[in-house]
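Comment thread on ticket #2218

A.B. wrote:
> Attaching the input chain for the structure job we discussed in standup.
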Amino acid sequence: MEYLATFIDIILHLDKHLAVLVQQYGVWIYAILFAIIFSETGFVVTPFLPGDSLLFVAGALAALGGMDIGVLIAVLIAAAVLGNMLNYQIGRYLGPKVFNWESSRFFNKEALEKTHAYYEKHGGKTLVISRFLPLFRTFAPFVAGIGAMSYSRFTFFNLIGAISWVGSLTLAGYFFGNLPWVQQNLTAVILGIIVVSLIPVFIGWLQHRKA
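C.D. wrote:
> Ran it. Output below, let me know if you need it in another format.
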């Protein structure tokens, strides 16, 4: 029971234990980080896994020599892209099944068509922006699959979102993560990143109201 509690604590607070894991597992740390990011973006049931903070702290540790920043970014981008692809495929598989329940009050063909229309029109920016929003980045590709967003369009914005998310946060940690003020206010820094990423959503909402 004690080992299980320790394992859960490491998974839920991986960013705090990352330095220890780098020392213990060496090159295998890349596989561990791949698995975490892949799971966080690939399964609807695991949105609680660390994302933003993990990328930031991983970048900071790379700056100290714990990992190669180039390899780290490549591995994490691959994990983010493949995770979203899996989530999309799951949604695409389940969507037609649940939305064809004609007797259901909520899951019906009309709802499916509306979801499809939304993701064909706004799905690109939704996928990119959601990368920076906890919970949203886990559900966005799943809903894109349910709405049958075209695969080529999804793939393009999936790649753009993964590069933007992993690249920006990991490099931010690499260049600024070891500053004393940042280390003492890591939570505030991550929240600041989330607030900044919400600005386009807020602007879009205002434009929609004016229209």
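A.B. wrote:
> Thanks. Noting for the ticket: The chain has a mean pLDDT of 79.
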